[in-house]
């Protein structure tokens, strides 16, 4: 790649020139917009709001766990009988906090964060289309999401939700008679039910878009890997989410109408049946969370290594393989539920299969970086953090997938640390990589590279401190979901040395979570400042090869003025750095690169 | 790798005419999983209560089943009429289709009311009362879930009605009729499977 100074380069158009952000004006033009880019931004604002809400619960929980005994959690009112208000114990408040932390972050942040928010913005542009196949359906999905979110958050004021984000029966199906405040579970479960529709409709829209709106030249194996990831995600969304819908509906009915037994053992139901149904959705759902993140990482690594992705077809097909195998492993959440040893063995073996496509991706990313011209910008740093964290999360998953070790580790902080390494490390960091990567495209402004890198470093330290300490405690049996690590531990049979270790692990974890929180707030401040004061972004500030870098920053309403010609993906032939505009341009006269 | 510009034609910003059919098919796949999961949940839960008496099939259910099968045939005829630009036949079939759709819902409501006594109004005793309330729920949940989707199907049918009466469907633009018919065929198939699951296997 060569660097050029264009004496006659066209200056960048002003931000006031026509683009999707100012194409039409007024709040209403946003609320009823059919533009996939605006809908994507509305999703982005919503998911970030819920990230802040769910993250605040996490900080409150960690603060509570810093010292033995009750620290900050209040007692919430339970019911009022004749002027006498009765209160929940503070430990009940703790149960509600961790449930809402998990529920809000899983259903309202992680699941829609990448497909619905970033995916909506980039999918049609990367494909070379003007919009998604069904724009009205797209807007409807957004409002269904908002409706579901409102229901979910109503649980906060309707007596709280204390079942864990998994809504396990009988926690969710039984409740104290006479309590006025038992509607929380019903609201939250209804919310999750409604959110499922949003997820399904987004999946339908994305699949239809990729089938129907590929421009001439865009064959399946020319689609950027982000699109393959979104395709695999959409397939899981439409096939798995309906199972959650019927499960939650049965749960609501069981809770509202007395004397009916499907899941509640007190009424002749089977709580393990609930677990089967729940995890038949929720295991594919964890891949709904991680696979689109992997798509972002594939894009970012190729761009910042200035090198075609290694093993394109393998990465594309491994997304589909993860989606397929993801449907066959749900029983590994239930090794201690009393299912037969034979079934558990099969589920364990199938679980190990997931390691193959996951490892294919990791090896291909590393092979892409090998001998690449690596540019350590903020998105690339997050992508490398993703690889490290996801690998740790994946490898600790092997211990949990093996029946014998899982029985020891079940319900300990080892599990908590494992899924935070995959979900936060997977989705949140990929989301941050994606937000930084496409930020110049979304808003036409550059953020401070130094500020972004410092935030990344703080996040790196904070995240690993928070969760490595949980691995250490968890591997020695530190139980999850405990509000207090005081004298109860010795009553439970833990020795004094274990109890001391657990208390120390909790302290370190809390300190780590504060550092992580500071890093995330820092990153947010950097981006918010850039939103208003950032330098004007060129159309291709990173040297990205995919179609979204060939339209203006920010894109015009129709995305493209002229037709993008669709060739091979990840083709860096003739890409030159234009120092005048700090932009990458394609020199059409460049000789074709030699075949590798 | 070579830059290989394949086409310099304008980006195709218009959907192909069969896009709606494709989208409908994807939705139907998703709904099929929904109904399959609910029927499996029913069968598993039913299996856990082997002492339950076999449900008697209310006569009204045969009526609603027949209505839905005739509806499916009518919808098929409507698609054929639209494809051949036979406007009067299209109008007739869409009217019959809509009448049958509403008729099915009326029949189901009647079934819900008449269904209850033989199943639930026996004086329940002890363990049997649990079983009966289980039955009550699963019947109403399964048929209710189906009925909700029938109600949902009335919305596209209303659009088809409006455009048919306005004479907007031609052999080039008949796809919405086909998409709507596809959905109603699906409701028909689901109903038959559900009927078998509750009254033949159950």
Report on this structure.
The complex is a heterodimer of chains A (596) and B (202). With 596 residues, chain A is mostly helical. Chain A has one domain: Cytochrome c oxidase-like, subunit I domain (Cytochrome C Oxidase, Chain A, Up-down Bundle). Chain A has 15 helices and seven strands. In chain A, the strands form three sheets. A three-stranded mixed beta sheet of chain A has the order 1-6-7, with no helix packed on it. A two-stranded antiparallel sheet of chain A has the order 2-3. In chain A, a hairpin with a 2-residue loop joins strand 2 and strand 3. In chain A, helix 3 crosses helix 12, helix 7 packs parallel to helix 9 and helix 7 runs antiparallel to helix 10. The longest helix of chain A is centred in the first third of the chain and has 38 residues, at 90-127. Chain A is globular. Chain A starts with a strand and ends in a 10-residue tail after the last strand. Chain B is mainly α and 202 residues long. Chain B has a single domain (21-201), classed as Four Helix Bundle (Hemerythrin (Met), subunit A) (Up-down Bundle). Helix content of chain B is 76%, strand content 0%. Chain B has helices at residues 19-47, 59-83, 87-120, 127-165, 175-201. In chain B, helix 1 (19-47) runs parallel beside helix 5, helix 2 runs antiparallel to helix 3 (87-120) and helix 4 (127-165) packs antiparallel against helix 5 (175-201). The longest helix of chain B is centred in the last third of the chain and has 39 residues, at 127-165. Chain B starts with 18 loop residues before the first helix and ends with a helix. Mean pLDDT of chain B is 83; it is low at 1-12 and 121-127. The chains are: A mainly alpha (596), B mainly alpha (202). At the A-B interface, helix 5, helix 6 and helix 7 of A face helix 1 and helix 4 of B.
